[in-house]
# Entry
Amino acid sequence: MSITRVANVAIDDGTHRDARVRRRIDSVGTWGFAAPILAVFLILFLIPLARSVYFSFTDYTGYSTDVNFVGFSNYARIFSDTSLISSLSFTLLFAVATTVLVTVAAIPLALVLNRAFAGRNLVRSVYFFPAVPSAAILGLVWGFILNPLGSGALNTMLRSVFGVGPVPWLADSHLAQASVIAVSLWSQTGWHAVLYLAYLQAIPAEYFEVARIDGASRSQQLRFITLPLLAPAMTVSWLLLMTGGLKVYDLPFTLTGGGPGFATRTLTQSIIQSGIARGDYGTASALAVLFLLAVGGVVLVQLRFSRRMEGRFS
Amino acid sequence: MMLSYQLPTRRGRLAAIATAGALAVSLAACSSPSSDAGATSGGSTTSDSAKPTTVSFLSWENEETMRPIIDAFEAAHPNITVEFSWAPPVAEYIQTLQTRLSAGTAADVFIITAENRTDLMDSGLVTDLSDQPFMSNIADAAKVPYTQDGKVYGMAISSWGGGILYNEDLLSQVGFTGPVQSWAEFMDLCQKLKDAGIAPFLEAIDSVPVTLDALVGGVNASMGGTMDAAIFSGASSFADTWTAPLTLFQELVDKGYLDRSAAALSGDQVMQEFEAGRVAMISTGSWTPGGIHTAAPDLRFKFMAVPGATTGDTYWVGAVSPGLAINAKTTHLDAALTFLDFIQSKTAVEMYNKETGSITTTKDFTPVVDASLSDLADGVRAGDFYLPMSSWERDQDALLTEATALIQQLVQGSISAADVAAGMDKKLASLG
# Structure
């Protein structure tokens, strides 16, 4: 080997060594920053999930240390329990209905809040406010308003103004379900409108200017510029609404207690009551595992649909 | 020279180190239920009466209520300090206790109640109190719910009762002269009130309603108190025993005496209607008079028993109140026993009665109760009451939840009395 070549190899070695050292330092830094969140993910999610899967195949009560393997009997019990089937159906209804209705309400609200008018900031605050109190408090307050007796707040107003009622808002199964969905719609629309508003404000004004020059009407601008560019916001909003809707617990529980009958009972309520109140951790764990799989499946499908929509409009 | 690119292996090793480190932390923090029994089993064999010691107590009554009693105990036993904590009843308390029992950090003394007694006794988590001298002062009826295989595991110093609470002024408008003695008489009273434009009756269906509890209690009494044992053994069923009481209860709804909106009401909402004078009668329990006097000082009211189908066949609803139990794994057994001994003493029971207005049932003290409770208190102290959940031998919460949902549907008018009873049989069968 010639000296030049040796020198070149030596120089290459040095250069590559520096690059390797830099990459090592970068990796250590990356993993160093990731380790805490990995630990949190492991401790607060993976390990509890593994324990839940384990308990779902046992007769663990939460009290006794004598734990026995029972195979798939906990899973079989779930599918034969009418109250669990009922809670599944309402949970799905709630998740889909709130996702659709909040989207339909939040986008026009965001368009209005994006315009300039006197008191705009105050109006934005007013619409955002329902998202601030906890859902449990909202349930208690709306339970007072929607009291099905004639002396209930809303029924009193209906009787005095329109001479109708009393309406069994929370005593009729369908009305109770509609009431829970309506309160959720009222509490979440403002928050999601603000999310859409943020994306609206990121749309360059020049797009609309060019469209106006080209003779596009307001509805055409909305259809061909605004809505397509809001697709990423819809992805985020729908993901939050769907996951939040599937795991809802506090609002229906405080507003109706899951009744009348099992009309407004949710899957989360069933899991908590099975596991804690009844000391049936085995069945509750099985329900939680199935719930995780179902929610994961729904979210994956929804994300795929949203990404395809975004890709179509981008 | 080989210029091998070794970074992927090093990256994998770094990833393994980070993950292993996180795993080591998590494994050190986590433990299986079987290894949570950190406290030594049994109690301290040395006397706690001489050296300073503590006894931890997880109550479900707040500190404001219990503080005078705890202060009195600590004054009487200066060497024992009570570490007080509480969680509100019922579901939150049971969840808190269950979590701490699983973790091995439960208090020395805690509440045993209808909802958790079976699990606590079956799992050997509570200490046998049968042979303790102070248990001789506990009413025999108060020991029954917390007894298993002849051993008593809970000490209850009070019981509660419930029935029909009526507004004396509203009822006097329709010629009411005294407690009704039959269901037909009760229906007749409700019709008179309805004709007078007064809402006759209201009760919350957020659990099995009091009227139905009492009607079923009458059936149990007619079977010599063996109804629930027969149901759970398969010798009888809910269909055989509950259908008749449910049919009577349905009459209240079908004739418009109980508004169908009751299916969605809470006890607080029903009480507000009563306090506002908008309804003549409600069903409630012995804990309510104090609140009513505060909210409606001018309201005159009284309790009466729920009448059955047969004249003279009246029944109260009620149950032994939650008792105190000692953690089987306590290391302060003597101090815990001393604490329970004090709680059942005349001094403490008198304080508890004054603080809460409860109907105490210990043998050496006659409680002072609100005037409206005079008849009810006599019945409760005599053990003359029934509550399904206290009599069911297992799966109390699951059956109660199912029963409540079915009765709500009955009140809505979507199912019949026979459907409710059949539904409860189906649920019991599924709980196997």
Observations:
- Residues 73-313 of chain A form a domain with the MetI-like fold fold (CATH 1.10.3720.10).
- Chain A touches chain B through 54 residues (CB under 8 Å).
